[in-house]
Amino acid sequence: MRGWAVAILLIAVFFQACKKADYYSADNIRKRGEWFEPTPFGMVFINRGSFTIGPSDDEVLDQTATRQVSAEAFWMDDTEITNDEYRQFVYWVRDSIARKMLGEVYPEFMITENARGVPLKEPAINWKAKIEWRNPDFQAALSDLYIPEEERFAFSREIDTRKLIYDYYWIDLKQAARRANSFDFETQRYTGTVTNSKGEEVPIANRSAFIMHETVPVYPDTLCWIRDFAYSYNEPLTQKYFAHVGFDDYPVVGVSWNQARAFCDWRTKLQASFRSRFNDTPAHDYRLPTESEWEMAARGGKQNLLYPWGSYYTRNSAGCFLANFKPLRGNYVADSDTRATTTKVGSFDPNDFGLYDMAGNVAEWTSSAYFESNYDLISDFNPQVEYTARPDDPPVMKRKVVRGGSWKDAAYFIRNSTRSYEYQDTTKSYIGFRCVRTSFRNELQNR
Which of 24, 122, 312, 314 has a CA 20 to 30 Å removed from the CA of 133? Predict the structure, then answer.
């Protein structure tokens, strides 16, 4: 094709494109197509549905009421969060803190302007800059990140895990909803107060009053293995359970409810950062499951059965136990598939939804506050009783629902309906967590 012909063709294409540049025209909106939600890695889809929450008729020892409830569709991790997965979070926090410290000495660790040379309002971390941990100059710049010399054991230079703190913000939509009518349009100001993340009552100056600031130490409490059990030798687990690669695929423990929420926030931001490269609209945030979502997922679509595998028994037809729990009095290793403590995630068959270890192995945090009368309070759709306790609140306000039972529990505690609780700022060697994410999908998309 001659040069002038090519030029005419390019001009024609340009003008044709300009005609379609109106993104909000009716024609373009029709041609956009339906937004598709890809399957999140490591998660399974739980369709919207209705079920009876609470004990079945034959559970006469449990006085908890039952309710018929419905829940919206959501994604759930097919296993509990493992040591390897949580360690990624710890390393990210460590490296982000180290890069900020190095940025004070070496400018290449911080980004101060965008690709067009426009200065940024706040410097950003340059994740492409490599940290040479054995470089003496780098070690000098990072001296405050290491354990002080007087606290070192055998002169070992190690990162001070107490300084690995995750800093994040979240919006308290519940307080915002309660104060929505307190906005004075004449003065353009809110009236009243709001409880901030420190438990203080502060005046509502503007919408920023509903933004909560959290600082959470992220390293797991490895000493929980010793503290939880008196007259028991668990020092090897304290020393190696989280740190050693041999336990990579075991569920993380020693993580408080606050730390589990911080992990969900980090995971959300990591996913959003990745999807932004494709100019994709962010999906829902990762979070802890509500109590009703957890029970709905554990039941696997079955009603009025005791355990996630859809049976009234803890053994299969061959006599093998179907979960990692305390099957007999003092006998934690009753058959070849059980261990004295935790097992690798996914060691037992999943339920009908494809979820592993919904009974036993480790119990799991939910986002729900624990009250004995929860089922009398909840709505019959997307039920939830939620309360974010402040530091000065009494202990009873810090109780969070724990579900699923663990390796140290008898069969009663691994039932679908059994409710238990722990305090949100405590850590245990038998409690972990998994994440969920509200889904945009419906039944037709799930075919």
Answer: 122
